[in-house]
Amino acid sequence: MDLAKPLKGKTAIITGSNSGIGLGVARTLAEAGADVVLNSFTDETEDHALAASIAEEFGVTARYIKADMSKPDECRALIEEAGACDILVNNAGIQHVAPMEEFPTEKWDAIIAINLSSAFHTTAVALPMMRAAGWGRIINIASAHGLTASPYKSAYVAAKHGIVGITKVAALETAKEPITANAICPGYVLTPLVESQIPDTAKKYGLTEEEAKQQIILERQPSKEFATTEQIGGTAVFLCSTAADQITGTTISIDGGWTAL
Ligand code: NAD
Question: Atom 9 (ligand 1): residue with closest C-alpha?
Fold first, then answer.
């Protein structure tokens, strides 16, 4: 095995990977030698250019496949079109914040579809491919909100607790096979999803954006530091290593101590 490229010859599909954590995980897996399939619901020149730049930088095959993770058929078609799936990273996710009595039904449905149901559909198609290949890794990007709750995030918290549950089921259904399923539970990571919440939070509390980050966003993260996409990617690479062969059906928190509170 090439120690610098331990994932050479493996194909990784990362849903929702033209930005943020998904892109960071795709880059780290490619750095470790994996061929990668990037995905989102858009089909822009920049999406394909991202894949091309990863291929060039890390000397791997990288493709971008458009598929809307809110649609079951497109979730399934993504895996089929990729043609191989040794490592499946279910990462696509959106957020909406509102009290339950005001939470729009269409936002609830979209969050459950993208953040939870998509992982069921992709996993269902990927598992036979992993069985045929004799090896597989399912890595679900859950959240600290998969283990604990916050007000006004009903759909997100429900979806993230759900993804922790489906991770355990996938692990039990593959327990006797060389396939593992685990969930990574990040605390706050400074990605577009979080950055978009900062101006409103600052305005709401009459703070500067920097104060809002430290005092409000990172309030529950005892380290007072954001986790990074590279740390999440590194954890994904670890979960693909032989050291992690017996780690299955569990969660790994990357949250600066949030869930220790
Ligand atoms: P992001 O907004 O930067 O990225 C979300 C990705 O999902 C993007 O690539 C977007 O294009 C894609 N996406 C959205 N809707 C889609 C759809 N219908 N079909 C396909 N792709 C779609 O956000 P992020 O912070 O990188 O979040 C990625 C994952 O990490 C999410 O599941 C999120 O819940 C989780 N997470 C994020 C944080 C954080 O602090 N940023 C913390 C814990 C968990």
Answer: 16
**What value does the mean pLDDT of the chain take?**
97
pLDDT for residue 1 is more than 80: no
**What's the CA-to-centroid distance between 93 and ligand 1, angstroms?**
4
Q: Which atom of ligand 1 is nearest to the CA of 145?
A: 43
Does the annotation count 156 as an active-site position?
Answer: yes
- CA of residue 219 to ligand 1 center, whole Å: 21
pLDDT 10s digits, 99-126: 999 999 999 999 999 999 999 999 999 9
CB 7 within 8 A of CB 240: yes
Give the three-class secondary structure for 13.
strand
Give me the residues paired with residue 87 across strands. 12, 137
Cα gap 37→109, rounded to integer Å: 26
Closest of 230, 203, 219, 209 to residue 24, by C-alpha: 230
Q: Note if the pTM is more than 0.70.
A: yes
